[in-house]
Amino acid sequence: MQSLKNYWQKGIVRVVVKYGSLLHGRAKMTKKKRRFCSLICILRRNDQMIKIMFVCHGNICRSPMAEFIFKDLAKKKGVADRFLVASSATSTEEIWNGVGDPVYPPAKAELERHGLSCDGKRAVQLQKSDYDKYDLFIGMDSANIRNMLRIFGGDPAGKVHKLMDYTARGGDVADPWYSERFDVAYRDIYEGCTALLDAILKQDKQ
Hints:
Elements: H1 4-10, H2 12-20, H3 23-28, H4 31-43, E1 50-56, H5 62-76, E2 83-89, E3 95-96, E4 99-100, H6 105-113, E5 136-139, H7 142-152, E6 160-162, H8 176-179, H9 182-205
Parallel strand pairs: 1-2, 1-5, 5-6
Antiparallel strand pairs: 3-4
């Protein structure tokens, strides 16, 4: 297969990037095409780390679970050194006097059941300045997406996506803070992170 560099030289990627950067054009694009645009924009810089920020409401349940699940998946694939992965909250509900709460104990316990540690992780809030620091912002539900767009003031580069949109079934990752089904949250997040990583690696091979 031709390398991504060759595609770029031929101008194919330039067209995709240009089209993807237009707000009105992007509104008409399918979710699949938007994901393709974002991944191509990232992978044309294949000499740099891909920076992913997972986002939920409080950064004590779903987004830290996604952070550590994705890190583990990337490690098992032998590509951990290609990614910088973090997580954050759209709210300050779990941050007190500038210090974030640790991962919610039931979420931490669910990770530990799968051999994953989240020790040291504390809630942090997503900042507008993060937009230029990361390549992808992956929300857990539609409310996360709306709040990210509010914080960023838009999404001109097509970086904001919902995790389950990378899967065949789509939908939201239900908040286990309310459902208390941390096992279900883990299952959905694992499926979403697996699909996200596979999508990135698949594009990288083209």
